[in-house]
Write a structure and sequence with these properties.
heterodimer, A: mainly alpha, B: mainly alpha, 3 helices, about 85% helix
């Protein structure tokens, strides 16, 4: 971690801040692609994180965490707020086939999401079921950490993961049967 | 064949790791510089607006005070005096009451 760059950025050097944002962009974007399984949503979230980083950098303490971790924490809050708003608004949601039709196929992330069976099956799960699974098996969070992250009881985390894995197994089993 | 829990979790990890291996389109440095400049402009505008609002409130308040002083001089002085005396009396009473309670 370049402490000098962070100090320069905090003291108002715009070039240093631009460099920091560029260096961390890829990490933040990929984190949100994994979490949302939607490159568009991940790009929007990453953009919001960049803006928040510009505005809140003065409150960042390099001794407490790395800049990328701090940026992820900001993005996590934005994402959870977004999920809550989405839940409150309700409304019409595109089903998986409609989403696939809308995907731009020249994006490597979207191509991967369309060709990988596991990612496709994960994408079919609802946000509340998919998120704990991704956090546990992809990002390596413990049950306690997931409960803290999503602000839900640990029992709920365990049951969501268990139900989600069951649905995934069924989905992948059906898929295997169809392809055979 | 059904996937066992361990196998499925490993498969999820492998699929997710593929995302890390892809190359994302990181914007040019100019893009970030432009974003920072844009945010600086937005922040300045916000601060200007807050200052204008504060100034507006201050002018209205000063005008009211001046109007009261000119039109109802005695009443104004009485209110000013009370606004100073009331907290002082309250504080004295509070301290006295506290001492009584300690005894």
């Amino acid at each position: 971690m370049d402490f000098k760059l962070i100090e320069d950025a905090k003291s108002g050097n715009r070039y240093a801040l631009s460099l920091l944002l560029q260096q961390n962009y890829d990490f933040v974007y990929k984190y949100f692609v994994k979490l949302t399984l939607s490159p568009d949503e991940a790009a929007d979230l990453t953009q919001d994180v960049m803006v928040q980083t510009i505005n809140k950098l003065s409150s960042y303490d390099p001794e407490k965490s790395s800049l990328s971790t701090w940026m992820i924490a900001i993005g996590k809050n934005l994402w959870i707020d977004g999920l809550r708003k989405k839940k409150r608004r309700g409304g019409y949601h595109l089903n998986i086939d409609e989403q696939i039709n809308l995907l731009v196929q020249d994006d490597p992330f979207q191509k991967l999401l369309l060709t990988d069976d596991i990612l496709m099956a994960l994408k079919k799960l609802s946000d509340k079921i998919r998120t704990p699974i991704v956090l546990k098996y992809s990002l390596g969070y413990s049950y306690e950490e997931i409960a803290k992250y999503l602000k839900i009881p640990i029992g709920t985390v365990k049951s969501r993961i268990s139900n989600g894995m069951k649905t995934l197994r069924e989905e992948l089993g059906d898929h295997e049967e169809q392809t055979n | 064949m059904k996937n066992k829990p361990i196998e499925l979790s490993q498969e999820i990890k492998q699929s997710m790791d593929k995302i890390d291996q892809l190359e994302s389109r990181v914007p040019e440095l100019n893009y970030f510089t432009e974003l920072i400049n844009q945010e600086a402009v937005t922040l300045r505008r916000k601060q200007n607006m807050q200052f204008t609002l504060f100034l507006g409130c201050a002018i209205i308040l000063m005008s009211l005070i001046f109007f009261s002083l000119v039109t109802y001089t005695m009443f104004f002085l009485l209110v000013q005096g009370l606004s100073i005396l009331t907290p002082m009396l309250w504080f004295t009473f509070y301290q006295f009451h506290k001492k009584e309670r300690v005894r």
